[in-house]
Each structure stands twice: as structure tokens, then as C-alpha cells.
Specification:
The chain has 270 residues and is of the alpha/beta class. The two termini are 36 Å apart. Helices cover 36% and strands 19% of the residues. The strands form three sheets. It has a six-stranded mixed β-sheet, sandwiched between helices.
């Protein structure tokens, strides 16, 4: 896709890679939200004035929208609401009290109702995911049971909109991903006292939630994930083929090889 695309950008490397893949895409960031884009055509919008955003996209003849990057829930100022926001304010504020999946589905509907097609990051840059198979190294036989156990946990977590990752070591759950994200999970595991750890090394399993809309909040790993996995004393990580984004792929794989961390790309075996 080379035209008619807008990148609604939050923080992190993903929006940067999408812009590199489609340099003429319109880049939109939101007031008060961090981002790492360094593009000439950045537009700054406000959550309180969604109608202005829609008009901007229509003016630039945007047909497709991709949402990418980390973004905290906005602190809305009702005094700044435009007519569109005033009309949906009650529903919008109510939705913000629910889980991430519910919020994102609602936001997608707002854009679709305006005639925009919301697409997935992996549809913009195909190289963001990995096919099934071993990407780096291989898990030891003793870790296979931990992977199966982790998948069972994730299957249950997904239905409750809890998170996309879990760490299991020696048959014990060392941590699950919650609202704080994968970085916080791995930091927590790294501080776990040695008496609770197994010498065999554990595994991070990261997958989409059950019934997740794969256009938004797609599970993501990158070089920082690999470094944190190593710092946490884990042996490796398992991700789903085609459904987990791998940022800075070459750097991620090189770092995993350097640190002796395996990356296994496979579907869950429940």
C-alpha cells in the first residue's frame, strides 16, 4: 500500500517501522501522547476533537487507517469536546472503564462508521511477523511441558482480557502479563528470589488473546524483549506464527543468538 494510508501513532518503534515501509503515509499523533516519529507530515490531533481528525483524514483522501504504538488511556477534558464527542461522550466514557479489547473495538467502530478501513500493522509491513518454525535455537525437552502449561494459562486469560504473556519455569507460574505490559512482567520475574526458581530456566510465551481483533494491540517483541528475557534468567520465548510482531527483526534475532536465547515460532498445542 503506497497511498491513502494514515498511521495513528503512539510510542515505540512500530510506528517508525510502518512509516519506513510506507513513507508517504499520513502520520497522526495525539496531543500529550509520546511518540518517536521523525516525519515531515506529522499531524497533531486531540482526542476531544475526533471530528477534526475525521475531517483531516478525509481532506487527505485517506481510505485506510492503521493504529500502532503504545498509548495510555487519555485524560479527557469535556470542556474541549467538539459536537461529535459531545454526542458520543456518555458511551465513550463508559467504554473507557472496560478492558482494552472492548475499548479498541469501540474505537475501530468509530472509524469504520466514518467510512475508513482499519487494517493491521502486519498488513502494512509483511516482514513484521515470522512464519512457523524455529527462529533461533531450540527449547530443551524439559521446557516443552512448561510451554504447554503456559498455553493453557493464556487460553484462560484471554477470555478474561487479562494479558498476552505468561512466564513458566519448572512447572510454576512466575508471572502473568497484566495492564502494565510485558516489560513489567519480565522485570518482576527478574526480581523473583532464587529459592523459587528452577535451574532449568523458564520460558516466556506470548500470543494473541482468544478472539482478539488482530488489527490493534497485536502482541509484539523486539530487542528489548530479548534482553529482558536474558536478564530474567529465562531460556527463551515462544510466539505465534504470523500473529506476533517482531520489531527490528535482524537485531532481535542477532541478539537472541548472542545471548543464547531461543525463539520458537509455533501454534499453541492445547
Amino acid at each position: 500500500m503506497t497511498s491513502g494510508l494514515a498511521i495513528l501513532a503512539g510510542d515505540g518503534q512500530l510506528p517508525v517501522q510502518l512509516h519506513q515501509a510506507v513513507p508517504d503515509a499520513l502520520c497522526v499523533v495525539f496531543e500529550g501522547m509520546a511518540h518517536q516519529l521523525n516525519a515531515k507530515n506529522i499531524q497533531i490531533c486531540q482526542f476531544e476533537k475526533l471530528n477534526s481528525l475525521f475531517e483531516l483524514l478525509k481532506h487527505h483522501e485517506i481510505s485506510h487507517v492503521v493504529m500502532a504504538g503504545a498509548m495510555s488511556r487519555p485524560q479527557l477534558d469535556p470542556a474541549k469536546f467538539d459536537a461529535f464527542m459531545k454526542n458520543i461522550a456518555r458511551d465513550f466514557i463508559k467504554v473507557l472503564q472496560k478492558g482494552d479489547d472492548t475499548v479498541l473495538r469501540y474505537v475501530i467502530t468509530l472509524f469504520e462508521d466514518q467510512g475508513f478501513s482499519v487494517i493491521a500493522p502486519q498488513d502494512v509491513a509483511l516482514e513484521l511477523t515470522l512464519p512457523e518454525g524455529l527462529a533461533v535455537g531450540a527449547p530443551a525437552d524439559v521446557i516443552l511441558a512448561d510451554i504447554i502449561f503456559a498455553d493453557r494459562i493464556l487460553h484462560q486469560m484471554g477470555a478474561l482480557e487479562i494479558g498476552q504473556g505468561v512466564v513458566v519455569e519448572g512447572g510454576h507460574v512466575l508471572g502473568i502479563e497484566t495492564l502494565q505490559g510485558t516489560e513489567a512482567l519480565l522485570d518482576f520475574v527478574a526480581t523473583t528470589q532464587s529459592s523459587l526458581r528452577s535451574s532449568q530456566g523458564g520460558v516466556l510465551v506470548k500470543r494473541p488473546k482468544a478472539h482478539q481483533d488482530m488489527r490493534v494491540d497485536v502482541p509484539t517483541i523486539g530487542p528489548q524483549t530479548i534482553q529482558q528475557v536474558a536478564n530474567a534468567g529465562l531460556s527463551g520465548l515462544v510466539i505465534s506464527p504470523e500473529n506476533v510482531l517482531v520489531l527490528e527483526r535482524e537485531k532481535t534475532i542477532f541478539l537472541a543468538k548472542s545471548l543464547g536465547i531461543f525463539i520458537w515460532v509455533q501454534e499453541p498445542k492445547l
